[in-house]
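Researcher: Sequence recovery benchmark, item below. Answer with residues only.
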């Protein structure tokens, strides 16, 4: 190996499918790349506390979480891009007035709204539930527990909100109500479609956080590889020297990528790493 590469991997739809099943070949790919001297980072829309144990247990060099709200290098928190108290209060007032449930993401915890667990009940039931293996079921149970209301969120330390509505018009309503002051995207919660999405401060995204990490490490973005499948991966796919969309991504996400690999359970990460010489 002449020089190390740095790879940033989304979680949902990239390392695990939407039934929480981890692709075994992805574990081999990450661990093999790190053993060869390359750096591999998680880059997820989830908060740090929501990362499945099966994924965290693989071992990574750092984590970008909350869609770029937080960036860690090893155990060091490099950056935290959180909402001012006034912006957060505006966000919560809007969601409450519009009957939109939400989950607020801080660095070390999440703060669900009162009715969130009941609204997301379909995530834990039906055909999706039956598709899970034992490890995926355990991860999903932990996620379910974090969806239960445990009291109000603090006034500071929140980087992003994930929202959950009851109708496909929810995203349009949230974007119309908040889009001038926040970034609002959808397509990140597959079973909800445009009934759900994410809200963050302008300029807070995975691509910006990746640029911070790479600069701090003294590396080049040209040597970075980003792999993802969702709308919160678009900036990551653009900023990295090589942006790779998963085979299970939709056509819009693929249009932002330099390449398309195979799907999550068809060795997508492993094939991408192999193609670019990380393993």
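Model:
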């Amino acid at each position: 190996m002449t020089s190390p590469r740095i790879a940033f991997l989304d979680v949902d739809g990239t390392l695990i499918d939407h039934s929480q099943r981890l692709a075994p070949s992805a574990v081999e790919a990450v661990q093999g790349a790190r053993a060869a001297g390359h750096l591999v980072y998680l880059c997820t829309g989830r908060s740090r506390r929501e990362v499945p144990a099966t994924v965290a247990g693989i071992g990574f060099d750092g984590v970008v979480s909350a869609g770029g709200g937080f960036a860690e290098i090893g155990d060091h928190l490099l950056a935290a891009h959180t909402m001012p108290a006034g912006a957060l209060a505006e966000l919560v007032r809007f969601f409450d007035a519009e009957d939109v449930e939400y989950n607020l993401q801080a660095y070390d915890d999440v703060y669900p709204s009162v009715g969130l667990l009941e609204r997301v009940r379909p995530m834990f039931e039906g055909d999706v539930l039956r598709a899970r293996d034992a490890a995926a079921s355990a991860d999903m149970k932990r996620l379910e527990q974090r969806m239960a209301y445990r009291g109000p969120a603090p006034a500071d330390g929140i980087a992003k909100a994930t929202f959950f509505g009851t109708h496909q018009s929810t995203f349009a309503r949230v974007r119309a109500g908040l889009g001038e002051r926040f970034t609002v995207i959808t397509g990140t919660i597959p079973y909800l479609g445009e009934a759900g999405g994410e809200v963050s401060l302008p300029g807070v995204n995975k691509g910006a956080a990746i640029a911070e990490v790479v600069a701090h490490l003294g590396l080049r973005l040209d040597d970075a590889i980003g792999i993802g499948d969702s709308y919160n991966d678009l900036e990551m796919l653009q900023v990295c020297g090589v942006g790779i969309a998963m085979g299970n991504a939709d056509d819009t996400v693929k249009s932002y990528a330099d390449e398309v690999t195979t799907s999550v359970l068809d060795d997508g990460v492993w094939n991408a790493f192999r193609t670019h010489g990380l393993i």
